[in-house]
Amino acid sequence: xxxxxxxxxxxxxxxxxxxxxxxxxxxxxxxxxxxxxxxxxxxxxxxxxxxxxxxxxxxxxxxxxxxxxxxxxxxxxxxxxxxxxxxxxxxxxxxxxxxxxxxxxxxxxxxxxxxxxxxxxxxxxxxxxxxxxxxxxxxxxxxxxxxxxxxxxxxxxxxxxxxxxxxxxxxxxxxxxxxxxxxxxxxxxxxxxxxxxxxxxxxxxxxxxxxxxxxxxxxxxxxxxxxxxxxxxxxxxxxx
Length: 240
What we know:
This protein is α/β, with parallel strands linked by helices. It has 2 domains: 166 residues, P-loop containing nucleotide triphosphate hydrolases (Rossmann fold, 3-Layer(aba) Sandwich), CATH 3.40.50; 66 residues, no CATH class. Helices cover 33% and strands 27% of the residues. It starts with a strand and ends in a 12-residue tail after the last helix. The mean pLDDT is 92.
């Protein structure tokens, strides 16, 4: 597998505070990576760096072997992010928001695809309603519909299951599996370990500013991953 995203000695500081220190890893095509870490470990900061919303203090990020500065537009065109911010226009309807994003990403056949993804996420009945009237769960489903609409090769998901009911979680899991099976890549942050492990083939642990674990998912158990996140994690040495 070729490296889709690579981080080469990436560090991030805010003033005198170091958040991430010398982070090195790759995400390959067709790979699904679960990123674990306690609150404050720097997971969201790392996702912001990878999505180019923030710049590293030192080190380098590359997309398909090219530094971000040399391929920024290509990176953005092939990257899908689901974070705590919806980035929807609140006074526009669900349908209008999807059509807008579809045009930005040059998606063809919007007149057919927008209704299809709204049906997939069970929002067809409110497609004309302003997004500001949506509950948190409905907004999350619309965010997923946006990803479904333009099908980016690389997904960065920060707590994607929060606010979803069981039915929504089930179809999200199925869609993520299909995405990876089709050759897409995924970097997932979630505290819901069982769900994250079920769609991942690799697990990373971020702790005390650095990566402390990098394992294939079939080499770890749910219980072991949970143990990494309890107080005993302070005594885990970094793996060489």
